[in-house]
Every structure is written in structure tokens, then in C-alpha cells.
Amino acid sequence: MRYIDLRSDTVTNPTDEMREAMFKAEVGDDVYGDDPTMKELEEYGAKIVGKEAALFVPSGTFGNQLSLFTHCNRGEEVILGDDCHIVAHEVGASSVIAGVQLRTILSNKGELDPKEVEKRIRRADEDIHFPGTGLICLENAHSNGRVISLENMKEIYDIAKKHNLPVHLDGARLFNAAEYLKVDASEIAKCCDSVMFCLSKGLCAPVGSILAGSKEFIDKARKKRKLMGGGLRQAGFLAAAGLVALKEQVKCLKNDHENAIFMGEELSRIKGIEVRKEDIHISMVFFSIKNTGCSSEKFVDGLLEKGIKINGEENGEIRFVTNYWVTREDVIYVIKCVKELVK
């Protein structure tokens, strides 16, 4: 049975072109620097975001945590939004791996107030009680589905430079943000010193993310990646899929976004469903069914019986995520099934 999977943009299977590229990939031992396909991916990954160098990592969380580990000294403080992925969904790894303290700021749907960021910057030599700020982290596109403006990012980056601090961007969905803003990904990456972006979120690659930054930063990160268990051998098989993701699949994100907008509009026409239409910037649709009389459990189970996979309610909302393998016809079928469940 074919399922329509709306749980996340991470559920995308490799395309036929990717499978062919993986099958034919020329590989070598990447820890020795012998894998030509991996070298090509890392060079292309750095170029596409305008950075000097890049490094393949197994996952987005790995890339974010490696960045904290590389930028910061143990006991330093990282300033970031209270609802960002690093805080909410990375298992407290920053305390275990980098040994840093997270100092959160209340965000406005993912956007940070530059004045609040600057207010929280501390120097270790200022006061015997203070940790020093080691890093500022941003996220774009945000995991709430919104895209942060370049103006906001630039203002925070300028503050960071004023205080001689690095900025790391969790750009797991960087290319979704670039599509929404109608700019090259490198324009967004100008507002940070390091950036992580996923190959497996909406781009159909089976495994992997890229961490990019200066050559000095990546050289340090490469050794720390080894410490974290991320030194891979014949990884060119994965890199081959990553190259197809960056060269071909990025172009398909526009269609995902259009399907999400269409889905949001149609869901909002159903009595009792409240959709955050103003927050549909990328491929995510957040909505509430609390006024329909249908429980979250019944909603999830009912759609599964009709061949549609979704996650349960979180913080009072349900999320549908469009992706490469979800067609406009699929979306129309999903809307029909939702209407039948909540009528």
C-alpha cells in the first residue's frame, strides 16, 4: 500500500537519479581524504553557501553540536532562541558534548530581538560570577515553518561582530528559506560564520548534512568530528546522493511550498479547523482541530486507515508537511479525508 506521508520532510526517499548516482559513485576512505565524491560534495557545498570550506556530517543535530563544540570553550555560554531546534529537539547534547550553557531569549515566532541579544552578551573578565559568551545561534528557516528576514539576521550579525563573537546558523531548511526570500542561499549565509544545512530534509538524500565555514573552522571541526564518531569511510555513496540533492532537488522546493499554501487554504475552509495561514512560509502547515469535536488520537488513526501518515498533536497543534513525494492530487485526497473525519 502506498502511504501519503505528511509527518515531516525527512521522510523523502531517494529519487531514481540518486540511486543511480549512488550505485556508480567512485569512493575511497574519507578519513584518509581519499574519497573523490565526498571531496566534490564538500567543495560544492561550500561554494553554494559562499564559504571557504565544508564538511559532511551524519545529521543536522550532529552538525549543530559539532559547531558548538568547535566554536566554544567548555563553560562558555551560547545565546539562542528559546524555541529553536538546538534547545527543543537535540536531547540536551550541548551540555554533554561542548560543555556549554544555553542562554535562551524569548523569540517572536523564531525571530530574535537584536537588543535582547546584545543585552545578554557577557564577558568572563567582567565579573567573577559570569561565564563568557562564546557563540550566538540563529535558525532559518525555523522549525515552526517561518522564515526569518535578512534584515533581522544582519542586525544580529553586526552586533556579534561588534563584540567579536561568531554566529552559527542552523540552516537545516536553508534552501526553503532561500526559496521563500527569493535569494541565493549564500545571501542568507553571509549573516553567519558557520552554517549547517540538511541534505535529507525535503531534498530526498537518504543521509547527511553539511557544515560550512572558514577553512580554519572546518579544519578544527574535522578533527572534532572524528572525536564524535563521525569519521566515515567509503562515504562517497552518500555524497553522490547529496550532490543530486543540491544540484537537482533544491529546484523542487517551490512546488512543495505551493502545495503547502494550497493545503492551508483548503484546510481553513473546513468548519472548526484553525490554520496559521500567515505562518505558511515553507512546506509546513500548522493547524488546530480543537473546535471540530474530533480528538487528536481519532484524527491520527482515522487518517492512517485512509493511507495518510501524520504525527500527533504537539502544543495543541497538528503539523502537515508537504514534500517531493506528495503531489497536488495527494493534497486534494488528504483534504477530502479530513472533511470526512471532522464532519
Automatic annotation (TrEMBL):
Query: EC number(s)?
Result: 4.1.2.48
Which SUPFAM superfamilies would you find in this protein's record? PLP-dependent transferases
Keywords noted in UniProt:
Lyase, Pyridoxal phosphate
GO molecular function terms noted in the UniProt entry: lyase activity
Cofactor names: pyridoxal 5'-phosphate
Name the enzyme group at the top EC level.
Answer: lyase
- Report the residue ranges that make up the Aromatic amino acid beta-eliminating lyase/threonine aldolase domain in this protein: 5-288
Q: Where is the signal peptide?
A: none
For this protein, the record's InterPro entries field holds: ArAA_b-elim_lyase/Thr_aldolase, Low_specificity_L-TA-like, PyrdxlP-dep_Trfase, PyrdxlP-dep_Trfase_major, PyrdxlP-dep_Trfase_small
- Membership in a protein family: Belongs to the threonine aldolase family.
Name the chain's protein.
Low-specificity L-threonine aldolase
**Organism annotation:** Clostridium brassicae
